Amino acid sequence: DGRKPANPAFWWVNDEGEEVKWSFEELGSLSRKAANVLSEACGLQRGDRVVAVLPRVPEWWLLNVACMRAGIVLIPGTSQLTAKDILYRLQASKAKCFVTDDERAPAVESVLPGSQFLKSKLIVGKGSRDGWLNLKELL
C-alpha cells in the first residue's frame, strides 16, 4: 500500500542474535502493566524507591519507563555489586523493592536480615524462586 512501516520505539539484540522489538504502542502498554505490577503486586506508592540490579535486558528499560509512570524512584545498580554493596544501597536508600535476575538473587537473599525496609522482591527471568515475584508472570 506504499506506507512506510513504523520505526520501533525499542529494539534490543543480544550476543546470540535474539531480538526484541516494541512499537511505541507496545512499549506504552507494557510500561503501564509494569507500573501496575510495581503499584499493586509490590505495593509501592509514588516516591517509594526500587533498586534494580540487572544486566541490560529489555526489562531494564521497561522498568525505567514504568517507574517514571508510577512516580517511583528507580535506583539502578551495576551487575558487579557484591552482597555488601547491595546491603549498603538497601539501607541508605530505604528501598521497598529489589529487582534482579536469577544470577544475582542469592546475593540479595544473603543480606535480607539487614534490610528492614524491603517489602518485595521481583525476579526477571523464566524460572521461579521462593519468596520472589516473577515479573514476566505478573505482566
UniProtKB/TrEMBL annotation:
GO CC terms of this entry: mitochondrial matrix
Domain spans labelled AMP-dependent synthetase/ligase: 3-125
Keyword set, alphabetical order: ATP-binding, Fatty acid metabolism, Ligase, Lipid metabolism, Nucleotide-binding
GO molecular function (one): fatty-acyl-CoA synthase activity
Reactions accelerated catalytically: a medium-chain fatty acid + ATP + CoA = a medium-chain fatty acyl-CoA + AMP + diphosphate
EC number(s) stated in the UniProt entry for this protein: 6.2.1.2
GO biological processes: acyl-CoA metabolic process; fatty acid biosynthetic process
Similarity-based family: Belongs to the ATP-dependent AMP-binding enzyme family.
UniProt cross-references to PANTHER family, sorted A to Z: ACYL-COENZYME A SYNTHETASE (PTHR43605), ACYL-COENZYME A SYNTHETASE ACSM5, MITOCHONDRIAL (PTHR43605:SF6)
Protein name: medium-chain acyl-CoA ligase
Organism phylogeny: Eukaryota, Metazoa, Chordata, Craniata, Vertebrata
